[in-house]
Amino acid sequence: MSGYKEMSKEQLLHEKDMLEQKFKEVQDRNLKLDMSRGKPSAAQLNLSNGMMDVLNSTSDMVCESGVDCRNYGVMDGIPEARKLLADMSEVPEKNILIYGNSSLNVMFDTVARAMVMGVCGHTPWSKLDKPVKFLCPVPGYDRHFGITEFFGIEMINVPLLPTGPDMDMVEELVSSDPYIKGIWCVPKYSNPTGNSYSDETVLRFAHLKPAAPDFRIFWDNAYSIHHLYDDDQDVILELLSECEKAGNPDLVYKFISTSKVSFPGSGIAAMAASEANLADARRYMNYQTIGHDKLNQLRHVRFFKDMDGMHEHMKKHAAILRPKFEAVLSVLDKELGGLEIGSWSRPKGGYFISFDAMPGCAKAIVAKAKEAGVIMTKAGATYPYGKDPQDSNIRIAPSFPTPEELAAAAEVFVLSVKLVSIDKILE
Ligand code: PLP
């Protein structure tokens, strides 16, 4: 099919009539579908149900160091969980600190600590004469932007390229402005594009020369082992060791969790960083808690055993997720390919497909899909302050609906894209 922009006004109006007819038909099906949040499906959650059997009333609940996990204590996490999460984060055990059930919570706490107490002895960010700033690669994760917005941190958009953030811009800004204190990064199978950072990008991060001594890279490796394919996986360089080699050991905070490995909201979260950064975090944590949930840590280690166990488990997730991604991509390819009214990512892992509509169309497309009962992530959510300057990006989350629901939802989505795009071209 030729591109919509090449069609005459009459051809477009004819196409619009036909699409409106189809749209009415899907509306009559009274669908109620949700492609908005990156939640695992029930089938994926079932994969981890065995975790509920590895600890019961007859289990030995003592960890490797002899501590009874039913009681208070062990601030850093039990040794076997430290080993598992250190391996998952690709760092030595001395560089890992186990937290509670959510990495987002650790990120929030880390920013809160910097605001109130400062980073490694530097002036607390909230006590500076001007608001601090964060760089935000876009499109990105709405909840990252939510944290920095909550604390009144000014956010600066940086384009996310297929290789990672625009590093010319990052280097220029970070080295010249001491009020820039951080950058949000999802380096692997990023939310929402699914892209992974190139080796050059990681090395340029490791060699940054920030104007602020308390600048930190917030490296959220939420999708580190979340591949869709066995034989075609992204591999990224490990940033903490690259920072050490570059003489910048304190530059990065790495965040990780088992949310989308075991149970979201009931997993284990951890931070990996230099010993100086971890000591700084511990000073705060000492007042925050008498220890995190060690029974959950024990359950996870007894269930997965080691990284081999985790990788095997992730293959089962992939077997459920892969057909869903492929179903959505095949509808996009078949229905929108060649029309030149949108482009989309083809992730090899993670939880999202990123769709870029013609400028000025994203909000209208999301609203149109809603008219036919399909909920998409709010347009603009992938940008700081919910403002996509181009009104173009839409995040598609294919994980939660069943394959049949997804086929119906994708059909509504492409109809919405076509109808809104025709109106835009005819404007
Ligand atoms: N980081 C990213 C990039 C995510 O996409 C998500 C969930 O969608 C999270 C963090 C949430 O992680 P957690 O469940 O560990 O808080």
Automatic annotation (TrEMBL):
Q: Does the keyword S-adenosyl-L-methionine apply?
A: no
Pfam families xrefs: Asp_aminotransf
User: What SUPFAM superfamilies has UniProt attached to this entry?
Assistant: PLP-dependent transferases
Its lineage opens with: Bacteria, Bacillati, Bacillota, Clostridia, Lachnospirales
**What keywords tag this UniProt record?**
Aminotransferase, Transferase
For this protein, the parts annotated as crossing the membrane are none
Recorded protein name is: Aminotransferase
What Gene Ontology molecular-function terms does this entry list?
transaminase activity
Q: Which InterPro entries match?
A: AspAT_Ic, PyrdxlP-dep_Trfase, PyrdxlP-dep_Trfase_major, PyrdxlP-dep_Trfase_small
